[in-house]
Write a structure and sequence with these properties.
By secondary structure, the chain is α/β, with parallel strands linked by helices. It is about 30% helix and about 25% strand. It contains five helices and seven strands, in the order βαβββαβαβαβα. A seven-stranded mixed sheet has the order 2-3-4-1-5-6-7, with helices on both faces. The chain starts with 15 loop residues before the first strand and ends with a helix.
Length: about 200
């Protein structure tokens, strides 16, 4: 099926659209992830890093980064003919966090992208989604040259609840990102089912 049209002889399918956030620290690969998987040209709100921002933008470990997202990244991917995900990448710096509440409205779930070289940058995103009961998956972005750690070690360092999925991924690779997004949808569905069961008992 081509988006918006069905195959000849079949009735059109109205897809379910779901909103997924992509969050994490500065320079962790959020813009790259959205761009790798989006079937449309991603909307990006990137600006050049400037000298004025040097005191507040910690570029340790990402010295080659020259731009930053100041509002959001937006992309779209069709997982099945009846399921479309809208992806919203959040800005990573503290001074843009006021936008997160707006972006989180109506979100099914989220990906918290993590970099093992700067794992502490993920704490704020993990805390944000935990406090708001938004189901999330942690995706450890496997950067070239970065040390690899066992999943259990990363889980312990982030103090994740045992129910939160943690996966290794490559934000540049479409198939790897698709697997992460499918994981978010599955986790969010299980999370919602669990909450419904709790309410009815």
């Amino acid at each position: 099926m081509i988006f918006g049209r069905s195959e000849r002889g079949k009735p059109p399918v109205e897809p379910v659209t779901l909103k997924i956030l992509v969050a994490g620290g500065f320079g962790v690969g959020k813009t790259t992830l959205v761009g790798a998987v989006s079937e449309i040209k991603p909307l990006r709100t990137e600006e050049l890093l400037t000298e004025a921002g040097r005191p507040v933008d910690d570029t340790r470990g990402v010295e080659g980064k020259h731009t930053t997202t100041v509002a959001m990244d937006f992309g779209r991917i069709t997982l099945r003919e009846d399921l479309v995900l809208y992806l919203f990448g959040t800005p990573g710096q503290d001074r843009f966090w006021f936008l997160w509440d707006e972006l989180a409205t109506g979100a099914l779930g989220a990906v918290v992208l993590a970099d093992t070289r700067r794992l502490e940058d993920s704490f704020a995103a993990v805390d944000y989604f935990e406090r708001r009961s938004i189901p999330f998956v942690v995706g450890v972005n496997c950067f070239d040259g970065a040390a690899r750690y066992p999943s259990q070690s990363v889980r312990a360092a982030l103090d994740l609840d045992p129910s939160v999925p943690l996966v290794l991924c490559d934000a540049r690779d479409r198939e790897s990102v698709k697997d992460v997004l499918i994981g978010v949808v599955q986790h969010a569905m299980a999370y919602a089912a669990g909450r419904r069961a709790t309410v009815t008992t």
